[in-house]
Amino acid sequence: MTKLHGTSRSRSARSLWALEELGVKYEHNPMPTTEAKSPAHLKLNPNGHVPVLEDDGVVVWESMAINLYLAEKYGRNTLWPPEPAAHADIYKWSFWAMTEVEPHLITILRNRVMNAPENRDEKAAQAAVEALKAPFNALEESLKGKEYLLGKNFTIADLNVAAVMSWIPMLKLDLSSTPNVQAWLQKCLSREANKRVRALK
Ligand SMILES: N[C@@H](CCC(=O)N[C@@H](CS)C(=O)NCC(=O)O)C(=O)O
Questions:
Q1: How far is CA 39 from CA 35, 43, 88, 197, in A?
Q2: Nearest to 178 by CA among 138, 140, 121
Q3: Which residues of the chain have pLDDT under 70?
Q4: Are 124 and 107 in contact (CB under 8 A)?
């Protein structure tokens, strides 16, 4: 039994995208984030967060950990290439997205969308936009002459990084100074598996 807990309107979208991309048969519990601190859910994830994956008795939380697990188990030779050097790249890009990119995007999201207007700090949002320039330039350089992060094929590295960056269109951040990033992100987010997730609860 494979079950993913968490509404698609949360970071759970990342793991739903991985499940859809891999063609795994799964049950979706579209739990709203407001229920993530319920006693039943805290038993699955003591942090009281979604997503959580249950897969044949294995319980995994943290969106990137879930996706790396799913790709290794179900995506050999597709999202998960066989070479250890490719795994190093996959870990590198996944941790990079979570540490170098996600915190700044969250700052922008909070201060331009999520917080009540009186609690928004546009200076903080602007500083986060500035802070993203260095990591996005690094991504731009790495994508030069390549279709995807690891080369010719779409892997879990692309999925994880693009999923973290998937707030960018909604935030209307300008990527025109990093055209490789712009084209690559558009290509990744347009995949059918990701579009299916956007239609889920
Ligand atoms: N680092 C975690 C973050 C998980 C997280 O913060 N999830 C939010 C939804 S996007 C949540 O469950 N919030 C509910 C709460 O904090 O009560 C991951 O990537 O899985």
A1: 9, 6, 37, 27
A2: 140
A3: none
A4: yes
Number of H helices, E strands in the chain: 11, 4
CATH topology for the 2-78 domain: Glutaredoxin (3.40.30)
Fold entry, domain 84-191: Glutathione S-transferase Yfyf (Class Pi); Chain A, domain 2 (1.20.1050)
Q: How far is the CA of 34 from the centre of ligand 1 (A)?
A: 10
- Which protein residue has the closest C-alpha to ligand 1 atom 12? 49
Tell me which residue has tokens 């859910």.
41
Nearest CA to ligand 1 atom 5: 49
pTM above 0.85, yes or no: yes
Instruction: Identify the residue whose C-alpha is closest to ligand 1 atom 17.
Output: 36
What pLDDT score does 77 carry? 82
